[in-house]
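Methods, example record. To illustrate the input and output format used throughout this study, we show the complete record for Magnesium transporter CorA. The sequence lines were provided to the predictor; the line carrying structure tokens was produced by it.
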Amino acid sequence: MIVIDSIEALREHTADRRCVLATPEDRELTDEASKVLDLKLHGTHHPGPRRPMAAVVDDQISLVLQVLDEDRAHHALQLHARERGLLVIGEKKALDSIAGKIPADAGDTWTVLVELILIVARRCEEALDEIDDRCQELEAQSVGYASSPRRRTMGRLRAELFRIGETQAAQQRLLSNEEELAQSLGEDHQRLLARASAAFGANQSMTTRLYAMLGDILNEQDSVVSERLTLVATIFLPLTLATGFFGMNFQWMLDRLGSLPAFIVFGLVIPGLLTVATLVFIRRLTRSS
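The corresponding predicted structure is encoded as:
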């Protein structure tokens, strides 16, 4: 199958099956390809659906997938296929994600269609491998206390993983054997479609694992922060008690605690000993539990 991205190449290769790559802004190429390949398009010249979807009308299959670019941003990829060929419509970043990976030796349109679905799944797998490496780094750097920017990074990664996982689950459902997409293809293509469905399922499972791992790290960080705040409050507890007691203006206190030695003993030594005793008690209590 010939991969085409210009109207000149489309007019040149008239005897071959063609896979046309076009952006929504390239209306001339889109209109020409739809006429040549006998495709019926709806809503192509405005932003496409944001959710994965599939439709089978007569012998035309229309499919919308979400592909990840190099920055792990989702882009809609519209696939319209008939026996004559395939029209792929998407933003430039979406087309760059699949360019060069389309098999040129495929014998029919439906094989290329399923291969494109596999390419979308593998692109997400590559992005998840990068996120996995980043999560491992964050986990190693978060032993003990992690800084606020690092915790915010983990929070953003969790939100990104949730979004990716939801998209992968939706795309896996489109490829189910009970859906019209699988039922409109032959047995050989259904086996390839099952591989793509398994790839989307594996991606969704990986996002769930990484999402849970980052959640555990953030929970541990919350525990560390709580422990440190408790420790600070514990340190100031005996100091606050001593300050409150010796700050009371009893006449007995005014008569007997006016010298420098009394200030050192009752104002410094005793509060310091109380603080040390409190810390030792807390440490032993923590170890025993």
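Annotations derived from this record:
The chain has two domains: 2-222, 223-288.
The CA atoms of residues 70 and 251 lie 76 Å apart.
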